[in-house]
Amino acid sequence: MDKLNEFEKIRVIVSLIFEKDGKLLLSKQAPNAPRGANFWGFPGGNIELGETIKEAAEREAKEELGVEIEFKKVIGYFEYIKAPKHILTIFCSCQLKDENFSFGSDIDKAEWVAKSDFKKYELRPLMKEAFESDFIKGLLSS
What we know:
- By secondary structure, the chain is α+β, with helices and mostly antiparallel strands.
- It has a single domain (3-141), classed as Nucleoside Triphosphate Pyrophosphohydrolase, CATH 3.90.79.10.
- It is built from three helices and eight strands, in the order E-E-E-E-E-H-E-E-E-H-H.
- A four-stranded mixed beta sheet has the order 5-1-7-6, sandwiched between helices. Strands 2, 3, 4 and 8 form a four-stranded antiparallel beta sheet that branches.
- Strand 2 (19-20) and strand 3 form a beta hairpin.
- The N and C termini lie far apart (43 Å).
- 23% of the residues are buried.
């Protein structure tokens, strides 16, 4: 079988990393969210066709958290490649312009979480895999 026929089209996702006082911002997907309902993870979502990484990060922050951000830089990526899924997650360092959250329909809540406490949260399955990657281990140990 042709390997290309085993996979759906690739999904490219931005994952927004906000850090404050040694904690990272996690958001919980709402029960009615189309993906990852009731699971925790970094805010973010799909990059749309014709959209830059920066534009996607800014749009996702507005859609999910209801806030404006300052996009700083891409700090890493994680690839998930297991047929039929091929997902590329791009981690972006961002800064909140304010913390007056107004959650979109896909987000239930958000919390600042100490890196050592991530294990206490029910993370999205893909996020669990990403947390085993060298990149995330480095992010969490810094």
